[in-house]
């Protein structure tokens, strides 16, 4: 079965012949794609403020009302707990990240004090990493905050905004840290990716890809992408990053390139398309092929040359 969001509904199509099996209508837009749980329940958020849980047969299991609009996909851990962030720049603020049981009951919610919260990435140890521009948060599955990074956050549990000598937290990386969270833009709430070694990859609205060490809450390296060719003062990284087994991170930029950056921060390759890279995450196939779409109307499939 193929599940996708379209305008104000969730659809299910037969994967073999494309025949519509069912649809669930919502009271406002449904953006990005749904998340499928281990029990095959489909979760979809909407600008109407609800997270919908739909059974594989198209019957509504439950819906949960948040404090604002809901845009970004939910994430689900090994215990079938559903985590998702609230708010949307266009449809209404919600500063909370939510944790729900598979029955739709609230376990906890945490107020980031920002206007919107991106989808969390879940590490192998169960820690959630999620953006709420201009900060990056690390949180235990229990709802306990581990640390947060960004302007005026002190780079971790320490609430000071410098190292005692007037320099930003993070040592020599302080300048990069300030750039990483410099602006409150939609790219600033795009979900990070976590590599096998624990490195967190995240992009911001200045078009900067950054690698963050979660143990020290410092920036390992940054990579600057280009400007939108139609608006040369505009930068950004609208697509969700993905990272492969070798630590190569793939991310689309407003400059219409898809980038592959290795774990040292070096460019492996970049590929130019004829339009803006789609906001949806690129997908990695089992053979290492990268799939993504562009506003030029094409689906791209790219493999690294061996």
Summarize the structure.
This protein has 306 residues and is mostly beta strands.
List key phrases describing it.
globular; 2 domains; Methylamine Dehydrogenase, Chain H; 4-stranded antiparallel sheet; PQQ_rpt_dom; Lipocalin; Pyrrolo-quinoline quinone repeat domain-containing protein; WD40/YVTN_repeat-like_dom_sf; mainly beta; 306 residues; PQQ_b-propeller_rpt
Tell me what you see in this structure:
InterPro entries: PQQ_b-propeller_rpt (IPR018391), PQQ_rpt_dom (IPR002372), WD40/YVTN_repeat-like_dom_sf (IPR015943). Residues 148-176 are annotated as: Disordered. Residues 155-164 have a biased composition (Acidic residues). This is Pyrrolo-quinoline quinone repeat domain-containing protein. Pfam families: PQQ_2. With 306 residues, this protein is mostly beta strands. The protein folds into 2 domains: 1-107, Lipocalin; 120-281, YVTN repeat-like/Quinoprotein amine dehydrogenase (Methylamine Dehydrogenase, Chain H, 7 Propeller), CATH 2.130.10. Helices cover 2% and strands 37% of the residues. The chain has 1 helix and 26 strands. The protein has one helix at 174-180, and strands at 2-6, 9-13, 20-25, 35-36, 42-45, 50-54, 60-65, 75-76, 82-85, 96-100, 106-111, 121-122, 128-132, 135-139, 145-149, 193-194, 200-203, 208-213, 218-224, 242-243, 249-252, 257-261, 267-272, 283-284, 290-293, 299-302. The strands form 7 sheets. A 4-stranded antiparallel β-sheet has the order 4-5-6-7, with no helix packed on it. The chain has a 4-stranded antiparallel β-sheet with strand order 8-9-10-11, with no helix packed on it. The chain has a 4-stranded antiparallel β-sheet with strand order 12-13-14-15, with no helix packed on it. Strand 21 and strand 22 (257-261) form a beta hairpin. The radius of gyration is 19 Å and the shape is globular. 41% of the residues are buried.
């Amino acid at each position: 079965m193929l599940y996708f969001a379209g305008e104000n509904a969730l659809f299910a199509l037969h994967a073999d012949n494309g025949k519509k099996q069912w649809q669930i209508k919502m009271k406002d837009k449904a953006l990005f794609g749904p998340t499928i749980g281990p029990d095959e329940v489909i979760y979809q958020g909407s600008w109407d403020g609800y997270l919908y849980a739909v059974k594989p047969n198209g019957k509504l299991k439950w819906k949960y009302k948040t404090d604002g609009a809901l845009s970004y996909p939910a994430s689900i851990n090994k215990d079938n707990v559903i985590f998702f962030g609230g708010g949307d720049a266009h449809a209404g603020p919600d500063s909370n990240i939510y944790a729900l049981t598979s029955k739709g009951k609230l376990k906890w919610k945490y107020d980031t004090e920002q206007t919107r919260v991106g989808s969390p990435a879940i590490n192998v140890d169960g820690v959630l990493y999620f953006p709420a521009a201009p900060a990056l948060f690390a949180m235990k599955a229990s709802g306990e905050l581990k640390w947060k990074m960004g302007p005026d956050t002190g780079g971790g549990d320490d609430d000071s905004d410098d190292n005692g000598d007037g320099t930003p937290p993070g040592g020599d990386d302080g300048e990069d840290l300030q750039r990483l969270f410099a602006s409150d833009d939609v790219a600033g709430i795009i979900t990070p990716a976590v590599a096998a070694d624990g490195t967190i990859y995240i992009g911001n609205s200045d078009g900067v890809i950054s690698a963050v060490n979660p143990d020290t809450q410092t920036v390992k390296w940054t990579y600057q992408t280009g400007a939108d060719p139609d608006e040369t003062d505009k930068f950004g990284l609208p697509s969700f990053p993905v990272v492969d087994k070798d630590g190569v991170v793939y991310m689309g930029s407003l400059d219409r390139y898809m980038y592959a950056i290795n774990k040292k921060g070096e460019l492996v390759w970049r590929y130019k398309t004829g339009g803006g890279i789609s906001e949806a995450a690129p997908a990695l196939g089992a053979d290492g092929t990268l799939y993504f779409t562009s506003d030029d109307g094409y689906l791209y499939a790219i493999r690294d040359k061996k």
